[in-house]
Amino acid sequence: MIRAVIFDLDGTLLDRSTSLYHFVVDQYTRIIHNAKSIGMERYTNRFIELDHRGYVWKDRVYQELIKEFELPLDWNELLADYTSGFSKHAVPFPNTHEVLERLKNYGFKLGIITNGFGDFQSSNIEALGIRKYFEVILISEIEGIRKPDPAIFLRAAERMGVQPQACVYVGDHPGMTLLRARTRE
């Protein structure tokens, strides 16, 4: 019997695509446009392409953008703006709060496992207003383990006090769904 639901953050609870788009437009308006005349759509599309759905950290994205567009800016400052400002644009998927509330009311224990940096992901969770729903939140930098390592899933189950076979994982990456079957063996 399922007793716990563990969620991914980016692309599952956090509408990362929309959040990223809004952040990049804001950063373009505040910083990029003032530094050099580049079309917003061109810049935004290139940023999103280089970001590769979050799998490329922004230091590399900004370095490439500065090179390609010959921006007279420091990538470290752009990165600092990203890490401190992204969460201001964080939006959940529609009905996220309602779904989490309903799961809690049905008696499920809830958890989050997310790869990423501790402060950055914590800021996003706070911005979404969802921390109150979760018994455990595991962020890879803090835990020292990254998905898809089964150990992080087992750690979440243990901290919630449930057997791994009583957990389901909800995420946007198909490879993670196979993990549940492997941790049962």
UniProtKB/TrEMBL annotation:
Q: Which superkingdom does the taxonomy of this entry point to? A: Bacteria
Instruction: Write down the InterPro entries for this protein, in alphabetical order.
Output: HAD-like_hydrolase, HAD-like_sf, HAD-SF_hydro_IA, HAD_2, HAD_sf
What is an example of a Pfam family matching this protein?
Answer: HAD_2
The GO molecular function terms of this record are:
hydrolase activity
Question: Any idea which UniProt keywords this protein has?
Answer: Hydrolase, Magnesium, Metal-binding
Q: Which PANTHER family match?
A: GLYCERALDEHYDE 3-PHOSPHATE PHOSPHATASE, N-ACYLNEURAMINATE-9-PHOSPHATASE
Which cofactors must be present for this protein to function? Answer: Mg(2+)
Organism the protein comes from = Paenibacillus lactis
Whether Transit peptide counts among this entry's keywords is no
UniProt-recorded name of the protein = Hydrolase of the HAD superfamily
